[in-house]
Amino acid sequence: MQLSKYDYLIVGSGLFGAVFAQQMTAAGRTCLVVEKRDHTGGNIYCKQIEGITVHQYGAHIFHTSDKMVWDYVNQFVAFNHYINAPIANYHGEIYNLPFNMNTFSKMWGIKTPAQAKAKIEAQKSQITGSPANLEEQAISLVGQDIYQKLIKGYTEKQWGKECKDLPAFIIQRLPVRYTYNNNYFNDHYQGIPEGGYNILTDQLLKGCKVRLNTDFLEEKQALSSLAHKIVYTGTIDSYFNYQFGSLEYRSLRFESEILNEENYQGVAVVNYTDRETPYTRVIEHKHFEFGLQPKTVITKEYSVDWKLGDEPYYPVNDVKNHNIYEQYASLALREPNVIFGGRLAEYKYYDMDKVIASALCAAQKELFAV
Ligand code: FAD
Ligand code: UDP
Questions:
Q1: How far is CA 103 from the centre of its chain?
Q2: pTM metric for this prediction
Q3: Which residue, 110, 148, 274, 370, is the most exposed by fewest CB within 10 angstroms?
């Protein structure tokens, strides 16, 4: 009988795989991590360009209210005091985000929360009952003017659909505040790892064997035979050979440039909220770490239609995809030797802190089940 070499084969070196690997390695288990890209870290991967840490797969701001997760990541890397306070650019008009007294004041020339509330009340009067879609939800939260200038164009570019055809909950992620506070998140803890996310990933994967440029699905049998158990963080439909059809995603295209100037836009994130500007946002990476380098790196982010083979970014939250996912999820339950986790295997829009919490929980279940 051939003895398996590793306790775990971990497919994917993103946050889910890396946190699971760290927990198991710390508990004395052996892990082999296979990653189809040429680097570890999944979508939090960063590259150093002109001395600037560049977020290769879109801006990643760590925020959480979960003290356990915050303490966990701080064991491996220090976080700076970055607070996300993005700007909206609507045809050259500049507004603060998220929607707060600074936004209301600029939009309407008002000064007090009572004046802002009165404006919004008047502008949402057409919406009665509970909002049936994103358009109604947005208007009932912030009124017509903000919906038209700061939400409609951005959202329709981002999702490739009319706001009337999108679910209301998408916009509920954003805070609406009657205070002069531009912090994009309500969470208790926030920051960017000093030196970038790769430091975190490298620390998490310390002591594990990692094979890059290795697609598990191309060598499924051979790789599976190397371990007792598998942790799979790739797309769930590909694991099951798309037998119920493929799950849909929104994809992104990033265009980065090095500019010969010190400070291009004065803030890390500018959202272009009009329909005419083809990209949704421009990231100026140095501002995540308060950089003063002589040059700067910017990235324009375009939201694009997805087809099989493209990079899957955002799951499409509609009934059709939900039903397909449920079919795969029930097959997954019948694979006792495979743990399915992370944003692709669970077809879920997960923030980083939630992925970490989920991986810690999966690891605890493993360790205490034995
Ligand atoms: P991933 O990071 O996708 O890792 C999965 C890994 O598995 C990948 O490296 C992939 O190459 C590999 N893989 C897949 N299939 C195979 C296979 N067959 N064989 C081998 N390897 C395979 N979260 C926040 O908290 N704050 C933010 O500001 C934020 N911004 C975001 C911005 C964008 C544009 C996006 C798309 C996401 C953002 N997120 C943010 C979410 C964050 O990226 C995720 O929560 C986190 O990266 C998910 O980790 P994961 O391990 O589940 O998935
Ligand atoms: N949104 C918007 N205008 C903005 C920023 C966000 O209308 O300037 C809406 C948009 O519908 C988006 C949702 O708010 O899908 C959630 O925004 P968030 O920044 O959380 O999106 P993410 O890119 O993190 O998914």
A1: 25
A2: 0.96
A3: 370
